[in-house]
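Box 4.2: Ligand-aware structure prediction
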Amino acid sequence: MKIRSPRGQWSSRLTFILAATGSAVGLGNIWKFPYMVGQNGGGAFVLVYLICIFLVGIPIMIAEVMLGRRARQNPINGMAILAEQEHHSPRWSLIGWSGTLAGFLIFSFYSVISGWVLYYIYLSWNPGFSGLTMEESQSLFRNMVADPYGLIGCHTLFAIMTFGVVARGIQAGLERAVKILMPGLLILLFLLLGYSMSYGSFGEALRFLFQPDWDHLSGQTALAAMGQAFFTLSLALGAMMVYGSYLPSNISIPRTCIIVALSDTAIALLSGLVIFPIVFAQGMAPASGPGLIFQTLPVAFGAMPGGQWFAFMFFILLVFAAWTSSISIVEPGVSWLVENHGWTRPRASVMVGFGGWLVGLGTVFSFNLWKEFTVLGKTLFECLDYLTSNLMLPLGGMAIAIFACWKLSVNSTRNELNLLGPFEFNLWRGVTGILAPTAVLLVCLNSLGVF
Ligand code: TRP
């Protein structure tokens, strides 16, 4: 197999941590986590989510980054090369294909929701949130999603932002962006936490988030929690493989992945602790769906001195967080077109970007013109989300785990994870090779009602 692009490398471990954190921390933490928790009844969902992060997510992340570093190629090519080296069927490259396709589909709705955030940057000045009541906030959100043209405009802008960066190659700028972004986002989240603790129903929110109500635990809840763990850690799509492919070989993969996963989880929990006190204090339904943060946060900003500036900065930082994630979502597809088909980066970016934008119109319309059009009770957006987060990512992750533990020779793996002691190495292999795939399988079967 021809390898066209000799790859650059991250300049340091910190750069990789920043880039991977930039990919992991995004709308998944701040927008999706709270509304999923709300829709799935709180504590039980959070507990299953946390278990999935530690027992399924982190081990698979290590496996994925390791495969990426070994192959030093885009996921489709990389999996084919690794399978060939170890004399296995070329069909293992299906992992790369399904991940790349999932990325394309995820981008299509990710860009639309990021467009909402862009819209809220504008709304934070005009009309502004000062003294906003819950009803007014809800009607702002309702009016936004009812207007397809506004949504298309914002979706288009975000798609251009993403592919503008991807067209130039991803490494430049990413590091600097994340260095400012993460501390900024943390400061604003803590500020909001202060508001929620003083003015929201903090006790009620704590009970909702951390006291599991087992009546709410169903097969579907567990599947949603597992899907959320994959989504939030950017797993199984090849994004981590691509980032791993730039990783210098003397860096410990496990330690780095644990840092990334813990930061990501902390930010999601923080976001939950900010949102739910406001939800309960305002008597809002936790299961309000994808509009949850857009309806609650403006009320909090509106009640703070200087809230206009904070709201403005918060939504800008959130767009940045979504941006660094969205770049990693489409990178596998673009690098495949560049490395396997000899396209130039700009050309590949325009093609993938246009396709993703077009599919994204389906998500735009599923909030207004096509609201009534449902399959199995789900709108088009919900179908795309379910298909990717709950099916493609977990199954892809399972395949990655199996390949890394059972198909790659133990020697190759040990060399790649050379900084692990024998005990830790075997622990990782056991968890990744047996526990994680079994867990994914059981959750999937259970959600299908097999037992
Ligand atoms: N993890 C990101 C978020 O939480 C989204 C994301 C980026 C992603 N890359 C991914 C999700 C790869 C799945 C797979 O917003």
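In the box above, the bound molecule is tryptophan. The chain has 18 helices and no strands.
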